[in-house]
Amino acid sequence: MSEQTPANAQSQVQRAGLIRRIGAWVYDGLIIIAIMLLASSVGLAIISGFESAGIIDLGVDGDISEYARNNLIYQIYLAVCFVGFYVWFWRRGGQTAGMKTWRLQLRSLNGKQLTHAQCLIRLACSLGGLSNLWVILPWSGKRALHDIASKTEVVVLSKDQNKHVNWKGYM
């Protein structure tokens, strides 16, 4: 089985190098920080509302942040917000906002839409972005470890290709 770009895709694609990947990673990191701050604020407001209504008891200290930190449901909620950001954009068009800015697109090697499993494998194997360092190795074919594990590739788009249909109305 060949790990080349499918024949029905553009004949000459350029895989993304380390600098572009890091640029998109930093950009998306700032967005994720904002999303997580908003999600945390909403979660803490809900906990506060539940405590005020007598639905939950914060314990001896009455510290909302300590309650949230030790609450499994709250932690799962934050994880879903984090994972959901990437899965939503990768499945929708292969581009997060950072990838759009750096003209990158995530593609499945088989040419089909990314599956939920591919997105989750990619996130789990990314090691917080560190696995991108793999692309600088000469035998990597400019594919990071999480690209290889999820059977995907990150390609550089031309300016015209970057006007993705899923972003119309947003830009």
Count of runs of 4 or more consecutive helical residues:
6
Shape: elongated
**Strand sequence of the main sheet, in spatial order?**
1-3-2
- Report on the biggest sheet: 3 strands, antiparallel
How much strand content do the residues show? 5-15%
Helix content: 40-55%
How far apart the termini lie comes to 39 Å
Give average pLDDT, whole number: 88
Backbone CA Rg: 19 Å
Structural class: mainly alpha
Give the SSE order as H and E letters: EHHHHEHHE
The parts where pLDDT drops under 50 for at least 5 residues are 1-11
Number of strands: 3
Characterization of the model:
By secondary structure, the protein is mainly alpha-helical. Helix content is 49%, strand content 7%. The protein has a 3-stranded antiparallel β-sheet with strand order 1-3-2. 23% of the residues are buried.
Task: Write a brief caption for the model.
With about 170 residues, the protein is mostly helical. The protein is about 50% helix and about 5% strand. The protein has six helices and three strands.
